[in-house]
Amino acid sequence: MTLFTLQNESLKLLVSDQGGAIEGLWWQHAGRKIPILRPGKQSGVAVESSCFPLVPFGNRVSGNVFSFAGENYHLQPNVEWDSHYLHGDGWLNLWQPVEEAPERLGLEYHHTEGPYRYSVQQIFQLSEGAITVSLTVTNKGKEPLPFGLGWHPYFPLTAQTRVQAQASGYWPEREQWLAGEFQTQLPKVLNFNQPNALPRRWVNNAFSGWNGKAKIEYPQEGAALMLETDPPAPCYFIFVSDPQFDEGYDFDFFCLEPMSHAPDDHHQPGGGLLKTLKQGEALSQSMRISVTTL
User: Fold this and answer.
1) Residues 6+ away with beta carbon under 8 Å from 68
2) Would you give per-residue pLDDT tens digits along the chain (294 residues)?
3) Which of 55, 163, 209, 231 is the most exposed place for a label (fewest CB within 10 A)?
4) Is the dihedral of CA 11, 16, 22, 23 positive or negative?
5) What distance in Å separates the CA atoms of residue 268 and residue 266, rounded to the nearest whole number?
């Protein structure tokens, strides 16, 4: 595993070639080094990192099978602890550097097995008080398939943390961590249309009607994060773990995951919000995280 360091006057970023994952992002402000993302363990395990990419789509496909353009496609589980093909392939494999500079890094990954054959490039770019991460995936397979992109960032969580992210509805969770039937009525504890605290319990829900922008406030640090996606991502996930599932978890991090599609969109007509890519066609998505003082 190789670690790459990007740095400017206000930010320091640590990226691993294993999983194309971020292993740390810190705001250097007023003589302090404040974590913007949960510091990773640098273990080479994506779920112990600060953020990892979702490609060629995010979340799960119920039943590990989908039909598209008259063909049936079967997916194989890719982690021991889940019976589904989860979050694609990029987070589990080694990426190759294609560009290195003090404030910019390019990584590339090629996948040549299974229904999805593709190449993907991830670009990390630092600027004053912000990081922009961009993903571009190109279908290298012979058949058109539905693609999607996203990220799985882990943010610090405290009792004072407040989250604001527009939503018009959400998917309750059902068995095997799958999305249930869509609901237009948001529970009060999961309504982030106005700044709201996060529940101190298990949360694993997707939200629709997003405008691709979110704000995370840390009053104790006098800081706020703005997360913006381009093009505006229509869906985000909120994940809060639980000590019964995650030994040692102390409600000290949460995830707000931007996705270019809804959960289980493979089972929606035409692939839902997923984008059909023919051989050689590409899909791009970017995520920008900026920090400001409150």
Assistant:
1) 144, 145, 146, 266, 271
2) 999 999 999 999 999 999 999 999 999 988 889 999 999 999 999 999 999 999 999 999 999 999 999 999 999 999 998 999 999 999 999 999 999 999 999 999 999 999 999 999 999 999 999 999 999 999 999 999 999 999 999 999 999 999 999 999 999 999 999 999 999 999 999 999 999 999 999 999 999 999 999 999 999 888 999 999 999 999 999 999 999 888 889 999 999 999 999 999 999 998 999 999 999 999 999 999 999 988
3) 231
4) negative
5) 6
**Distance between CA atoms of residues 131 and 50, nearest Å:** 14
Torsion angle (degrees, nearest 10) of CA 64, 74, 21, 119: -150
User: What's the CA gap between 194 and 166, in Å, rounded?
Assistant: 8
* CB contact at 8 A, 280 and 137: no
Separation CA 141–CA 136 (nearest Å) = 16
Residue 219, SS3?
A: helix
pTM over 0.90: yes
Strand 145-147 to strand 22-29: parallel, antiparallel, or no bridges (unpaired)? unpaired
Q: Strand, coil or helix: what is 106?
A: strand
Strands (E), 128-197: 130-139, 145-147, 150-156, 162-165, 169-171
Rg (the chain; Cα; Å): 18
CA distance 204 to 207: 10
Rounded-to-integer distance, Cα 53 and Cα 192, Å: 24
Q: For the chain, first and last CA: distance in Å?
A: 37
Nearest to 223 by CA among 281, 174, 155: 155
